[in-house]
Structure formats: C-alpha cells, structure tokens
Write a structure and sequence with these properties.
The protein is mainly alpha-helical. It has one domain. Helix content is 70%, strand content 8%. The chain has 8 helices and 6 strands; from the N terminus they run ββαααααββααββα. It has helices spanning 14-34, 43-73, 82-90, 95-113, 117-142, 164-182, 192-207, 223-271; strands at residues 4-7, 10-13, 149-156, 159-161, 217-218, 221-222. Strands 1-2 form a two-stranded antiparallel ribbon.
Amino acid sequence: MQPMIQIFGRWISMYWLSAGVGIVLAYALALLRARSDRFQSSVKHVFAAMTLAVIGGRAGGILFNAVGHILFFSNRPGFWTMQNWNIILRSGGVLYGGLIVGFFLIFAYVRIMKLDLRDVSDILVPSIALFLVFGRLGCFFAGCCFGRVSAWGVVMHGSTRIPVQLIESALHLYVLIEMLRLRPERERPGILLPAYLAIYAVGRFFIEFLRGDAIRGVFVLSTSQWISLAILLTLAVIYTVIKVKKRMRAAEPLQVNQSIVEARDSAVDKIF
C-alpha cells in the first residue's frame, strides 16, 4: 500500500496517478483502433465517445458511491458534515456506477449521431478494460477495496489480506490481452461489449466473496453481486430474444413459399 508518492518535491495520490495513466493509455488505444480499416467510426466520434465514457465513469462512480453511503451509513454521527462529504465526493467511486453511466452516455451519443453501436463498442471496450487495469492498481496503492484477512496475501491496514485489487486488475489485463489477440469482432461485430460484461460480471460476483471492507449489500449478497446477476440476466434475455428473432426470420421465407404454393393450387382448382 502506497497512498502517496513524492514527485519533484510534491506529494501526489497514487490512486489518481494510476487512474490518469490509465486514461491516457485508454485514449491512445481507442484512437489507434479507430484508425484501423476494420472499423467505420471516425476518430472524431471515437474521441467524443471516449470523453463521454470518462465523464460518465467519474459521475456514475460518485453518484453510486454517494447513494450507497446514504443507504448504509446515513445514521452515523457526523455523516452529514461537509468534511465527511468532501471525503466521499473525492473518492474514486463505485466501479459499476461508472460503467453503467459511462455506457449510457456512449449509447446516447451513438443514437444521437446515428452511429453503429457495434462498431463503436468494439473500438472502446478494450480501452475500458485497459483503464481498469490501472484503476484497480490505484485501489491497491490507496488501500481501498481491500480483501478479507487471510493467511496469505499482502499486509494492509495492519493485517495480511487477500489482494483482491490485484486479482481484479489481473482479470482485466487477461480480458484485454485476449480481446486484442483473438479479435472476435472480426467474425462477430459487436461481440466485445456483451462478452466483456458477462466475463466481468461473473468474475466480480466471485471476487466479492473475497472482499473485506464494509458490508455493501442486502440479503447475503453485496450490491455489486446483485448488479452482476442483473447484468447476466439482462444479457441472457437479450440473447434469447435475438435467437428467437433469427429463427422467425429464417422461417419467413418458408412461410412465404408455402403461401405461394397454396395460392397457385387454389388458382389451378378454380381454372379446372
């Protein structure tokens, strides 16, 4: 754990330094991918969408963090003081909140500008994974989002704890490498977003069992675990709807041909 680092005589937060490096590299990767002939979206639109993702990520993280603190800690003494809220609003926020609001802003921009959502998401998703590699490293340096006490791990807050921040960072790094190596969007445009959401939702669900910070949920599971389940359910419903529509479309020519045959037979019967 290394919350602060001194650079040229000034103390800088390692969390925000890591996040800043992640943002710069995420922009670079997105713009580099936008220049590829495999995608149709212009660099200008990709830059705008990436900027909205950053803004949404920060706003959503703060919003979900604030709501969570109000729901679980509002009855504590000193909760509503300016000092406490200054700490809450300056924190990194809730990752899922950032993802949800960030994706919503990207979706709104794509619809307004009449872009191809599959194309834009295929460009941006690796950048989001890249940013979160560094974002979770920042959590590790800051000592937040820590794991539960264990016989193995790293010393944090006076105890040996499971380094869940590093585990989640490694998960995003693995997903990023596989996306860039396999490039599944070449065969199935638009696949990166649902694939990333599904992998992260499953991974986050199990990682939450290793968390050791304050209780953040209801009915046994944490809030992030409920969100993970909601994401997986939504993806399953969307997948089912798409499969049903494809089957219906495949059956339409057969129905049309059958109608033609029936009309022809009826006309023949009338003639003879």
